[in-house]
Structures are given as C-alpha cells and as structure tokens.
Write a structure and sequence with these properties.
This protein is α+β, with helices and mostly antiparallel strands and 711 residues long. The chain is built from 27 helices and 15 strands. Helix 1 packs across helix 16, helix 4 packs antiparallel against helix 8 and helix 12 packs parallel to helix 14.
Length: 711
C-alpha cells in the first residue's frame, strides 16, 4: 500500500479502488442495518413504558399514557388495513396497480422543476393559511407563540424590549424574562424578528404560511438533486412534504419550528449546490445555518452538521479525500454565518450578560443544557429516560406525520434492513431525518402536543424518507406466488396496504385531527372586546397565575416559580410572594414563610379545583388565612386567561388609543396602575359563572362582583 499526490490538496490511498469501494459499501450497509433494527425496536417495543417507573414526574406519566394510546391506534389500525390488502393480493395483479402508478409518476415528472416546486410551495402555504384562519381563527394555541408574538409587537414598534417599570405583574407572561435592559421572551430572536416584520406589514398571519412555502420550495429542489435517477419518486416525496399535517399544523400556529425548517431546508439545498458546483454556494449555506441557529440553537447545530456531511460525501468519490475543497467550503460557510452569529452574540450580551448565554438559561437555569442531568423541574433525565422519550417521539411520529395508521418509522426501519445499498441522496435524506432524533435524545425537553414537535422542523425530510422507504420495500417484494395452490401477490398486498393505510389517514383521519385542535384552549381564540376610546381592561385570571407572574416579574427565575407553586401550598406561596415583591430592601433570602425550593419529581401537596380549570394546592390540615380565602372567593365564578389578549391590544410603554389588556391583581394593586394611566377608562373582563362567556363591565361593578364590597 502506498500514497501518491493526485493534485494539490488531494490524496489518494492506493489499495485497489474496487476493494476500497466494496469495503466502504459494506460498512455503510452495516451501519444502516443497525439503524434499521434500532428504529424497529424503538417503535415496536414500548420503551416509553419505563417513564412511569422513573423519577420523570408528570411529564413522564403523560408521555407514557399518550404513547400507549397512540401505539394502540397505530397498530390496531394497521392490522385492519391488512384485511383489504390480503383480499386484493388474491384478486389484483401487481402489474395493474403498477401501470396506474406509472401513469401518476409520468404525470408528476411532466412539469418543469421550477413550476412543480412553486406549485407545491403554493399548496403548502395555502394549507397552512387555511388551517390557521379557518380552524385557529388566525390565533396561536401555545404560550410559546404568544410570548414571541408579544415580544414581536415591541420590535415592530421599534423597541428591542418591553418596559421594566413596575407594571410587570399586570402583563408578564410565562416563557419571558425581566432583564436589566428590558422585558423579552426567552427565545432566540430570528423568529421574533420575522413576526415583527409581519406586524409591520399588517400581515403577521402570513409569516407561517410564507415560511412553510419556502420550506417546501427548497425541499422540492433538493429532492430532485438527491434522487436524480427517480424523478417521479422525488416529486412524490416532495408532495408528501407539502401536505403532511404534522408540518402544516405547527406552521399554522406561529411556532418557530417552521422558521427553523425553512432555513434548514435552504442550508441543505445550498450545501448540495456547493457539493455539485461552485464553492461560493457555501456562503449562503453558512448564513442559512446561522439563521436556523438563531431560531432554535439545537436545530441549527444539527443542520450545520448535515450541511458539512453533504459536502464531505464529495470526498467519497473513488476514494479521494478532497481536503482543499472541503476546507474552502468550511471557510466560506463560516464567513457567511459570521455576521449573523455576531449579531446573535450581541443580542445575547445585551440582554443576558454574555454572548454565549441564551434566554433559556436565564429563564430556567443551567439545567436547560444538553446531556443527562436533572431537568429544571426536578425530573431525572438519564440514558433510560432518553431511550423512553425517543421511543415515544418515534411512535408519535409514526402516526402524526400523516395521521395515518401506516407505521412510518417501522417502514423506514424495514427498508434500511432490506436495502442492498443506499445512494448518496438516500443517505443525505436519512441523515436529514435521523440526526435530529439523535440530537434530541440528549435534550431533556420532549413534547407530544400536535405531534412530537421537537422533530417538526424535519417533518419534510421524514416525508421524503417515507416515499423512498415505501418504494424501496415494495420493489424488493416478489410478484405472484402460489400459496396452497392459489396464486397470491405479496407485492399487491404491500401496495394495497400502503395505499389503504396512507389514503384513509390523509383523507379521513388527518382532517379530523386538524379540526380537533379547535377544542384545545378555546380561550386562545377569544376575540378581544371592542371599546370606544382608550381603555384599561383588567382581566380576571386565576390565583396561581397571579402569584406566578408576580414572582417572575419581580425577578424570580421561572424554574423557581414553577417549583414554588408545585411544591408548596398556594396560600403559603401567596404570603411569600407578597413579601418577595414588596420593596422592603431586606435580603430576599430572609423572606418568610420559607418555601420548599428543593426540586423533586413527586410528593407534592394536594390539588383542589376551586373553579373550572382553576386549581390550587393545599396541605392537609392547613388553616387558610383571610387573605387566602379572599383570593379563593375571587375566583369562585371562573377565570379568564389574559395571555391570548395581551398581544392583540395596546401595550405598556407604547402609545395607543384602544384597549390595554392587563391582569387583575386585586383592587389595591390595580389602583396603582389606574393612577399611572389617568387617560384610560378602567373596565373589567370577567365571567359571571364558570360556564358563561366573559363579559365586559364598568370597573366598580366588576371589582365588587369579584372581590366583594364597594371599590
């Protein structure tokens, strides 16, 4: 074995190219067989069942329960879909189905690339817009998006942050932070700036659909370059990326996943162009990765690794390691990313005190970091929890990607096991889909609302991978076979199963799922009441919300707020919060009563519901003080969530002539705010009973009804 220079910056290791190629191909095959077996185990074996037996808290219990339901729906539905598949295997020739599929493939391949990509982009954007306006009524449904929309309103008004002027308890929201330089959401700024641009243009509702359209545009362009030998398959996979309800749903509720998805898809496309052509494509690759990083840092890191992987694979051609090409690409990509990374560092330093510190750490502490440790809520996150949560994510993805009983992840696992080789494009698509799964295994936060949303930005990649796996598996299944003297077609059975399971899901189950989101958090879609002239509208929410936001706005970290409310009686927290927020000048470590801040996963005080969806915690034998009884009595007729209204009205610190929605903190604290806004007419938004819609009343009438007596 020897070495010789082939050209500048290129080294060829001479071992016989045929031998080397076979060795590399064999190693790749072993890797993917291992991945395939792992995917099958993670979806077929209920590892998520470990969570209730670990110190994983309520999050683990809920995840295990939801996963059990999802698995039941998925696999019982798959068994039902096998029935028509087995029947058709006897009655229909595979050639008949394949002829119809060939016609569809020819039709898909007919339009020019640009036309097809733009058509799918318009389709995706239209689906997101339709879901957002028709079902969500143009409103978010998660606090994450509400906090970012509120922050975006300040940016749109030309301010980097909201005010820190003593009014915080009236309008502070979860997932936001009081800093020395103003109030901000805890999230990196790129998505917030895009929302702000939407507000400036008077079309914030268009941000999600536009980003979804951009994502699908670049996914389609990439798919054709990754699968050049099978254009119909590439275009079918891109179609699935455009219509999968998992991607559409979260894009339609202002979440930042779609922003990460769009910049990630751009980064991949630019990296492919850099690999296939001029290295100058590296600069936009770096910029796109930086924008993804400034939206969701972990996703940005994953997309950066993916882009480097794509370019590195150029080195695999005939055993040539093109160090010079890769180094030039890396340098140019870094140059493209540098201005955006420096801007992000400046933002972090301005608000969080360090260029390398993100809002997540300021809000919840250093336990938000990657790795195995106790999370901010006191739950364990170790290797077994990672295994269990990853299993839950993949089971949910199998169902939620297309809302179909086609077990998507298991199908991909089977393909990896049976495939003889994977092309360059298939390896890239696999890495695009699977790298975030691996990365999220080392991150403590997982959520299953609207699907496994930490994987949402790579939903288009999973759609492409589903198409590749389905075609690859079917092509390896034999045609006609005789069983007990009768002719059956296993390939027809497989095709029929895919069509029935996938078709029923997309046409029946997916619309039902999307419509079901209308029933989640109806208060998020509440229309702000209209008023004449400037008004100060006090919205009466729950006691625990008042306490939590009083503590957070007074500077307590959000993980400590959550711990205080979860591990102590609400009455005891009330007494503590009054002292904590008071400008007494004494050290806060000496405040009484002393609360339990030692985080743990279980053993909390009892929960008691005092009105519909309004709960407090009590300790057995506890004697409630008169101030605590007053707070409970104030909530007896129900509560109204102020957070969905905040971003839709006038905002503290900004000029306005309409309704300024703020939190009712009780008559005594409210009086301070009324004096601050003498030009605004005070009013109250409340419910007369837990089942009635909110009503807008004059301030004195509302206060008397809520808090009693004349105010």
């Amino acid at each position: 074995m020897g070495m010789r220079p082939l050209s500048e910056g290129v080294v060829v290791i001479e071992r016989g190219e045929g031998t080397r190629s076979r060795m590399e191909e064999g190693a790749t095959r072993v890797w993917f067989k291992g991945i395939g077996a792992s995917l099958l185990l993670l979806t077929l074996v209920p590892f998520y069942g470990l969570l209730p037996h670990r110190e994983s808290g309520l999050a683990g219990e809920v995840t295990a329960e939801l996963s059990e339901i999802t698995a039941g729906v998925l696999y019982s539905g798959a068994l039902l879909a096998l029935i028509p598949a087995v029947i058709l295997a006897r009655l229909v020739s595979p050639r008949a189905i394949e002829r119809h599929l060939a016609r569809i493939g020819a039709w898909l391949a007919r339009p020019p690339t640009a036309v097809y990509a733009l058509a799918l982009a318009v389709l995706a954007g239209s689906l997101v817009l339709g879901f957002s306006l028709a079902i969500q009524e143009g409103k978010p449904n998660l606090i994450d998006a509400m906090a970012q929309l509120l922050h975006a309103r300040y940016l749109a008004a030309g301010k980097l942050a909201g005010p820190v002027d003593g009014t915080g308890p009236f309008w502070h929201v979860q997932n936001s932070i009081v800093t020395p330089n103003g109030w901000v959401s805890q999230y990196p700024p790129v998505h917030v700036f895009l929302l702000a641009a939407g507000f400036r243009l008077g079309a914030v509702w268009a941000v999600g659909p536009s980003l979804a359209a951009l994502t699908v545009l670049f996914v389609t362009l990439s798919a054709e370059r990754l699968l050049p030998d099978d254009l119909p398959l590439a275009r079918f996979g891109a179609f699935l990326a455009a219509v999968n309800p998992f991607f559409v749903g979260l894009a339609g509720v202002y979440m930042n996943h779609v922003t990460a998805a769009a910049f990630g898809a751009m980064a991949l496309y630019f990296a492919i162009r850099a690999r296939d052509g001029r290295a100058a494509w590296a600069m936009p690759t770096g910029a796109a990765v930086a924008l993804a990083f400034g939206t969701r840092p972990l996703s940005g890191l994953v997309f950066g690794v993916l882009a480097a992987f794509v370019v590195w694979l150029r080195a695999g051609v005939r055993g040539q390691v093109e160090w010079r090409h890769w180094a030039r690409w890396a340098a140019l990509a870094s140059l493209g990313a540098l201005p955006l990374i420096l801007a992000l560092c400046a933002y972090n330093r301005h608000f969080f005190g360090s260029p390398f510190r993100f809002g997540y750490s300021v809000a919840h502490g250093e336990t938000t970091r990657l790795g195995f440790h106790t999370d901010p809520w006191g739950n364990d996150y170790g290797p077994l929890e990672a295994l269990a949560y990853t299993s839950a994510d993949l089971v949910a993805l199998s169902l939620n990607l297309f809302e179909s009983v086609l077990p998507v992840v298991a199908l991909v696992g089977v393909y990896f096991l049976v495939a003889k080789r994977l092309s360059f494009g298939e390896r890239v698509i696999a890495a695009w889909a699977l790298l975030p799964v691996l990365a999220n295994a080392f991150y403590w936060h997982h959520g299953l609302f609207m699907g496994p949303r930490m994987l949402n930005e790579v939903a288009p990649a999973w759609a492409l991978l589903t198409a590749v796996a389905a075609a690859g598996v079917v092509r390896r299944i034999p045609g006609d076979r005789k069983v007990i003297g009768e002719k059956y077609s296993p390939r027809t059975a497989a095709l029929a199963f895919l069509l029935v399971a996938g078709g029923v899901g997309m046409m029946v189950l997916a619309p039902q799922r999307m419509l079901s989101y209308r029933n989640f958090m109806p208060s998020a879609r509440m229309e702000p009441p209209t008023v004449e002239g400037p008004a100060l509208i006090f919205v009466h929410g729950g006691w625990t919300e008042r306490l939590g936001m009083l503590l957070a706005a007074s500077g307590m970290r959000l993980d400590s707020v959550e711990t205080a409310l979860r591990q102590n009686s609400t009455c005891r927290v009330h007494e503590f919060a009054q002292a904590y927020a008071a400008p007494s000048g004494r050290p806060r470590g000496t405040i009484e009563p002393v609360l339990d801040f030692e985080r743990r996963a279980q053993g909390f005080p009892e929960i008691v519901e005092i009105s519909s969806k309004n709960r407090i915690r009590v300790v057995q034998g506890e004697v409630l003080t008169e101030p605590c009884r007053r707070e409970i009595d104030a909530d007896r007729n129900g509560i109204v969530n102020v957070v969905p209204l905040l971003w839709q009205g006038d905002l503290p610190g900004l000029p306005g002539k309409g309704a300024l929605f703020i939190r009712d903190m009780g008559p005594e604290m409210n009086a301070l705010l009324i004096r601050r806004y003498p030009d605004r007419r005070p009013m109250v938004l409340r419910t007369s009973d837990p089942e009635s819609p909110p009503v807008l009343e004059p301030y004195d009438v509302g206060m008397a009804a809520i808090w009693g007596g004349e105010r």
